[in-house]
Amino acid sequence: MKSSLQKQETRDAWIMMSPAIIILLIIAVYPIVRTFWISLHEMVLTDPGSGFPFIGIENYTKLFQDPRALASIAFTFKFTITTVVLELIIGVGLALIMNKKFKGRGLVRAAILIPWAIPTTVSALMWKFIYNDQYGLFNDVLFRFGIIDEYKAWLSTESGTFMALVITDVWKTAPFMALLVLAGLQMIPDELYESAKIDGANAFQAFVKITLPMVKSTILVALLFRTLDAFRVFDLVSVMTGGANGSESVSLYAYNNLMKFLDFGYGSALSILIFIIVFIISLIYMKALGKNLA
Amino acid sequence: MDVKTARILKSSLFYVMVVLFLVFIMLPFIWQFLTSIKPLSEIASIPAKWFPSKINVQFYFNVFEKHPFARYLLNSFIVASITTFLSILIGASASYALARLRFKGKKVLLMAILSISMFPTISTVSPLFLILKSLGLLNTYAGLIIPYITFALPLSIWLLTNFFSQLPKSFEEAAILDGCTRLQIFFKIMLPLIKPATFSVALLVFINSWNEYIYGLTFMTDDNMRTVPVGISLFPSNYELPWGDMAAASIVVTVPLIILVLVFQKRIIAGLTSGGVKE
Fold this sequence. Notes:
The structure holds two protein chains of two kinds. Chain A is an all-alpha fold. Chain A contains twelve helices and no strands. Chain A has helices spanning 2-39, 58-63, 67-98, 105-117, 120-130, 137-144, 158-185, 190-198, 203-231, 235-240, 250-260, 264-289. In chain A, helix 9 (203-231) runs antiparallel to helix 12. The two termini of chain A are 30 Å apart. The mean pLDDT of chain A is 90. By secondary structure, chain B is mainly alpha-helical. Helices cover 75% and strands 0% of the residues of chain B. Chain B has 14 helices and no strands. The two termini of chain B are 45 Å apart. In chain B, 46% of the residues are buried. The interface between A and B is large, with 95 and 94 residues.
């Protein structure tokens, strides 16, 4: 009796999941497999006469000799690490502030949702104007406060471009990090802090001994989302710099190969590389999360 | 300095920080708004003129007259709404099974769905392009909704599963004792219970679809079929950077989102945190 009930339940489960599974297999899994398959071939749409010859891992070996590809990978790692570290520090700081009760807390919480909610292309355009060398707010404010003594063309040097991209990304996503961490903080029972106080712990000790361990998994999940997003960065660089001054992300370079040069073979190899790196990053985080997840 | 003064000083310092932070968050919007209502000559004044000497609404007319911006808004709205509706419709029954039913391989399946939601868009864009092209679906709404399901459906399933698993077990047990079938339990008991959560999920999926860029850029090449993020990103041309038009367009896009966020703040946060936080 019991086993037939269990059988029934299993069957129901698969029936209820089947539409979603079939759809995801067709529109997500199949395309990834096909991208991989294309990456093992030569496929240049501008040259249809060349056919679709199988070339093994040649696209991948080419990748490691292509300075532009290597530069884009290096830029993407640098961008990912810089933004994620800053977002972590600022996000945790903001969350700790918002965890206190104060007047206007609701306002702050609503305000930080706004950068998260607007399209990245819009925030990229907004900030691009702010960094404008002649009419931009950035120069204006820095000049008025005497931090710079002449207007600078921020988006025409490599370091300026990098800084501009990082500020824009942090502005848009540190609030998101703060919200997630705040939710974790709010689940810590007050009694824990009270008993720590009785035991004579100071604020810093309480933070290290209670707060950090309790929000560790929340922070790791937030970091996972942010790291993957930062590594896939496309919209921001595409709109703000178009990849100029050493700011071509690996997604942008892959996209240029695919949709601009129409070199589907090589572009696919780059996309599969991104897929693999994203996969490895997820594995590292999941390992760190261990049994905290699901 | 006595204790009281110290406390007042500390709390005013705290509020100064809060205000500075709010300024940092809001300044780009304020600047963009001021730019959008300045006369052209004042946008290009050095040093920057913060407040316009007179209000100029020409840029707002430009947005809708020089570009099919109303079409962009309509396209984005249609695509994002249908994507949201479909992914919740398909995702709800799967999430129910994943959260409430016992069967083998559940963990693996959940992990698989989570990893699909992390697929980089760039890794699927070229085969999807070839498929949509061969089906004649480029520059159609279906041709954008189908790719959007690839991220919207896993996201819906992931969030809804979290919400379903928070419901108490007793509801179903009582229903099974009453002789309800699985379908009846799902439609009559479970769905009504997670209705508020479904709304949170819908908001997140809608905002994600509304903001998507790579697929929209690639699959909608006809100017009349473009979505808002793509349309606005193509405002700059080789000959000019229409800062006024871009500012006005950003305000047109941002104001509804700000209202949405302010009205549904609690629901959005509930959705965001259910995906990232485990109890």
